Amino acid sequence: MLSGNSRSFSTAALCVVLGLVLSGCGANYTTPGGSVPLADLTETDINELLTTQPTARFPARIAVARVQAPGYESHRTTSFGTGRYSVVTTRDVESDESFERMAAMPMVAGFGPLNRILLPTELESIKALRTAAARLKADVLLIYTFDTAFRVGEQHVAPLNVIALGMLPNQEVAVTTTASAALFDVRTEFLYGLAEATGRESRYASVWGSTDAVDELRVVTERKAFEALVPEIEKAWAGIVEEHAVRPVGAAAGGVALAGPG
User: Fold this and answer.
1) Is 80 exposed, middle or buried (0-12, 13-18, 19+ CB in 10 A)?
2) Residue 161 backbone dihedrals phi, psi, to 5 degrees
3) How much is the CA Rg of the chain, to the nearest whole Å?
4) Whose CA, among 23, 74, 215, 239, lies 20 to 30 Å from 45?
5) Residue 178: which of 198, 149, 203 has the closest Cα?
6) Residue 152 CB: number of other CB atoms within 10 A?
7) Which run of H or of E encompasses 1?
8) What pTM, to 2 d.p., does this model score?
9) How wide is the angle at C-alpha 224 spanned by C-alphas 86 and 195, nearest 5°?
10) Tens of pLDDT along 64-74?
């Protein structure tokens, strides 16, 4: 028979063990928010689209923005703005090298991201981004979005759903990211071109010891998708230049940073 002190010690020890177990089982990971269909951001009707003309002057200045679903958030970042979409103004997976590579494309006079200082809080259409780009004297607006999907075994996990890490069986967890981009004329909303690329990564659930470990799989996948997107943007831009650019006498190719307020 246990004495009162022994029973108290055993109860306390059991509580510690249970606390450790429950805290391990209670680790949760929330999947990131969704993408936004780029076509849904335009407010121009079909008749206007058919008569819209490009106006960009080359070498052109390009403003860049990452857009996501309203209220987007991931383990490491949140978005700005409310309405039909939101804007991620901090780089989560995009490298400096990728931006420098796009800035060095032929017939690019300036290249840089939109600052949230320029953006309204209500984001209902692409016009808000075009207006912000116009304040930077940009000719072309490049917008892109990530569509990241999780799959645990045969189970697909929707955006902003919770995965209980401690309850996962030891099976394959796969993450697929499709990065999509579109290039618009700032003045007229003329669509110059589209680009898309996909990245995939998978691991077994047994290696997941924390939410940081899970999110690293997302980061690797999204980074891979963006790095694959950049060459597709370069191809699209080469076609745009070939079709629309008239190189001024003495104009040089290549780009420099696009300076903006803030």
Assistant:
1) middle
2) -100, 155
3) 24
4) 239
5) 198
6) 15
7) none
8) 0.81
9) 60
10) 999 999 999 88
